[in-house]
Specification:
The protein has 246 residues and is α/β, with parallel strands linked by helices. The chain has helices at residues 14-24, 47-50, 81-93, 137-140, 190-197, 239-245, and strands at 4-9, 29-36, 63-65, 120-125, 145-151, 155-160, 169-177, 182-189, 204-210, 216-222, 231-232.
Length: 246
């Protein structure tokens, strides 16, 4: 899954250094910038070194001066709310002697937030959702993770569908095609899967694909009626190979 990039304001202060340390120890997030007041003696220093950890050393992760107030705002992609809440709770607990609102109860005496592992679904894409293709953003928006690239089993035919925008292919199992069509397998949580499927227009849909290793996965298939006037591109072995040949 893509990491969240965080900018730390007041990075040379006590809370700022704590924030840099906590983020460096958290999965799914990294420091991409650090801000400090003009005139600070820490300007130009690596924020990781200031926090007492290994230097961040990313070029843009060096403290620079801007006149801003101090605060922490966590921003993530859609459907990342639970992860942001856990990271926010971790940052809050890193401060000393924190109380629960106006009460006398100590935050460190309450259980920390935990994310409930969500069930995930793997989906195979063969065309416009491949990495670098026009609709790949629909996967990225849902925090989908690319697992690996593989190919279909034999028995599949592959077509360039007519009158689609952007260009889309149609994968049909007819038992006769040479198959071995390149595809990518992406993984997303089941809540995101539902909204993703809702975006798919006819004649495409999600079915069960057989892979060259004998396993099965959910993935894009095309209704047979739509390939009557489509170009058979099975021999190219994949969408990107066919696009490159045009």
């Amino acid at each position: 899954m893509s990491e969240m990039g965080l900018i730390v304001v007041g990075a040379a202060g006590r809370m700022g250094r704590t924030l840099v340390r906590v983020v460096s120890e958290s999965s799914g997030a990294r420091v991409v910038g650090a801000v400090e007041r003009p005139g600070s003696p820490e300007l130009g220093k690596d924020c990781g070194a200031l926090a007492g950890i290994a230097t961040v050393s990313m070029g843009y992760s060096v403290v620079f001066g801007v006149t801003l107030g101090f605060g922490i705002t966590l921003i993530g992609r859609a459907f990342a709310d639970a992860n942001l809440a856990v990271l926010g709770d971790t940052l809050h607990r890193a401060s000393a002697d924190v109380r629960l609102g106006a009460t006398a109860a100590r935050l460190d005496q309450t259980p920390p937030l935990e994310t409930t592992p969500s069930r995930t679904i793997e989906v195979a894409v063969v065309g416009a959702h491949l990495t670098g293709q026009p609709l790949n953003g629909q996967l990225q928006e849902r925090n989908a993770r690319l697992k690996h690239t593989t190919r279909t089993a034999t028995g599949y035919s592959f077509y360039a569908l007519a009158n689609t925008k952007p260009l889309k292919p149609g994968l049909v199992f007819d038992g006769r095609g040479a198959g071995k069509i390149e595809l990518e397998i992406w993984e997303m949580d089941e809540r995101s899967f539902g909204s993703f499927v809702a975006l798919i227009p006819a004649p495409l849909g999600i079915g069960t694909l057989r892979l060259e290793d004998g396993t099965s996965v959910k993935g894009f298939l095309c209704e047979a009626y739509a390939v009557g006037d489509a170009e058979d591109i099975t021999k190219w072995g994949g969408w990107r190979a066919w696009l490159a040949s045009r």
